[in-house]
């Protein structure tokens, strides 16, 4: 039994993950004095900075996977309509 991904839900999830990244960047910029970015001083990052870095990397990976899946399934749908 073959299951297909619902393309509309995939587009919605991609859009929501992009919005989450923008929200995270907005909150990060508001709380910037509390974070260590690694570019200003040669000190050890605190826990909040490590959590922020990990969260941002996870959000970027989720968005990247969603974009790749969206492209793949969009191309698949286009080629199925051409045939």
UniProtKB/TrEMBL annotation:
Keywords: Membrane, Transmembrane, Transmembrane helix. The chain crosses the membrane at residues 12-29, 54-75. This is Uncharacterized protein. It comes from Gottschalkia acidurici (strain ATCC 7906 / DSM 604 / BCRC 14475 / CIP 104303 / KCTC 5404 / NCIMB 10678 / 9a). The lineage of its organism: Bacteria, Bacillati, Bacillota, Tissierellia, Tissierellales.
